[in-house]
C-alpha cells in the first residue's frame, strides 16, 4: 500500500474512530494499530513531514460522527478514490505521527462537561443570574460562576458570552478568561475566548481590562471599541459598530472583518457538528470579509468564500468532514 493511499485511508479512519457505532470504532482502532506495526519504515519517513493540523489534534469527542455519515463517506470514497488521493497529498502533507498522536491523546473537553452552565453546538441560552444580571451564552459556550457576598466572577471556559450587568457597587462583576480579567464599569459587553487570545467588545459604558500574564498591564475600554488580549499583551483598540455586533450574536451571524479563514473555521464549528482538516500555514494569508448566516451549511459558507479566493479547494467526505486547501 502506498503512502498516498495510506493518507486517504487515514482520513476515513479519523471518521471511523469518531463514529457512534462502538463496533465500528473498535475495529478502526485495531486496524490502525496493525497498520503502524506493518509500516515501520513509512512511519519513520512521515515523521519528517509537518505535524498534522492542530485542529485534528484538538477534535472534541463531542463531535460524534453518525454511522449513516460514515457509511456515506465510504461510498463516496469508493467512487472518487483517485481524486481524494490527489488532493490529500497536495493539501496537507499528512503526518502519520500527527494522526497517531491525536488518537493516543485525543482531547476530551472535561472543563466543558464540568462547567456550571453550557450551551450545545448551535444552541444559544439566556440566563437571569442571582444578582439580576442577564447573561447570553452563544453556541458551544461554557461558564463557571463564583458568586458570594464579596464577589461576582464569571469564568469563561470556552465560547462567547454577552452580559448586561446589574449594578452592585460592593461587588464589581468580573469576567475571567485564560488571558485576561475584565471588570465591568458599565452595563453591557461581549467576551469571547479564542484559541490563544480573548476578545472584548464594548456595547455600552466601560470595562477595565487586565492581563493575566502581565498584571501591570491594564486598559479601560469604552463603548464601540474592541480589544484583544494574548500572552504578549494588548492589541490596538479597534472601532466597531456595537449595534451590528450585538445583533450578530443574537441572530446567530458571524461578522468577519479581515478575519483569518482559520479563525472563521473555528467559529463555524460552534454551530455545526463538522470537522475541518487543513494546513494552518497554507491558509494563514487568507482573510475573510463577510457576514455569514450560520443557518447555511459550512460547505455553502466555504463556497461563498471560494468565490473571493478561486484557488481555495473544498472536498467533503460525507457531511461532517471537510478537507480545505489551495490548488
UniProtKB/TrEMBL annotation:
It comes from Acinetobacter rudis CIP 110305. It comes from the Bacteria. Pfam families: FecR (PF04773). Gene3D superfamilies: 2.60.120.1440, 3.55.50.30. PANTHER family: PERIPLASMIC SIGNAL SENSOR AND SIGMA FACTOR ACTIVATOR FECR-RELATED, PROTEIN FECR. Residues 116-207 form the FecR protein domain. GO terms for molecular function: sigma factor antagonist activity. This is FecR protein domain-containing protein. Transmembrane segments: none annotated.
Amino acid at each position: 500500500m502506498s503512502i498516498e493511499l495510506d493518507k486517504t485511508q487515514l482520513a476515513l479512519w479519523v471518521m471511523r474512530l469518531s463514529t457512534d457505532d462502538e463496533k465500528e470504532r473498535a475495529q478502526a482502532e485495531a486496524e490502525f494499530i496493525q497498520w503502524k506495526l506493518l509500516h515501520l519504515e513509512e512511519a519513520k519517513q512521515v515523521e519528517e513531514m509537518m505535524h498534522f493540523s492542530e485542529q485534528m489534534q484538538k477534535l472534541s469527542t463531542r463531535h460524534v460522527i453518525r454511522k449513516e455519515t460514515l457509511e456515506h463517506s465510504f461510498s463516496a470514497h469508493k467512487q472518487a478514490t483517485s481524486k481524494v488521493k490527489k488532493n490529500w497529498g497536495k493539501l496537507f502533507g499528512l503526518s502519520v505521527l500527527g494522526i497517531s498522536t491525536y488518537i493516543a491523546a485525543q482531547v476530551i473537553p472535561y472543563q466543558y462537561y464540568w462547567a456550571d452552565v453550557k450551551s450545545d453546538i448551535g444552541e444559544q441560552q439566556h440566563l437571569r443570574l442571582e444578582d439580576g444580571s442577564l447573561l447570553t451564552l452563544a453556541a458551544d459556550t461554557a461558564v463557571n460562576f463564583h458568586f458570594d457576598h464579596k464577589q461576582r466572577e464569571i469564568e469563561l471556559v470556552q465560547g462567547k458570552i454577552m452580559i448586561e450587568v446589574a449594578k452592585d457597587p460592593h461587588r464589581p462583576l468580573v469576567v475571567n478568561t485564560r488571558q485576561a480579567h475584565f471588570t465591568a464599569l458599565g452595563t453591557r459587553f461581549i467576551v469571547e475566548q479564542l484559541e490563544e487570545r480573548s476578545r472584548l467588545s464594548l456595547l455600552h459604558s466601560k470595562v477595565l481590562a487586565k492581563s493575566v500574564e502581565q498584571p501591570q498591564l491594564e486598559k479601560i475600554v469604552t463603548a464601540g471599541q474592541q480589544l484583544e488580549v494574548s500572552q504578549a499583551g494588548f492589541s490596538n483598540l479597534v472601532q466597531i459598530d456595537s449595534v451590528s455586533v450585538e445583533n450578530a450574536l443574537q441572530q446567530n451571524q458571524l461578522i468577519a472583518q479581515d478575519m483569518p479563514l482559520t479563525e472563521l473555521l473555528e467559529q463555524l464549528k460552534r454551530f455545526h457538528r463538522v470537522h475541518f482538516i487543513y494546513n494552518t500555514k497554507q491558509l494563514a494569508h487568507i482573510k475573510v470579509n463577510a457576514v455569514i448566516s450560520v443557518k447555511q451549511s459550512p460547505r455553502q459558507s466555504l463556497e461563498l468564500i471560494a468565490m473571493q479566493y478561486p484557488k481555495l479547494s473544498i472536498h467533503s467526505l460525507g457531511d461532517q468532514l471537510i478537507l480545505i486547501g489551495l490548488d
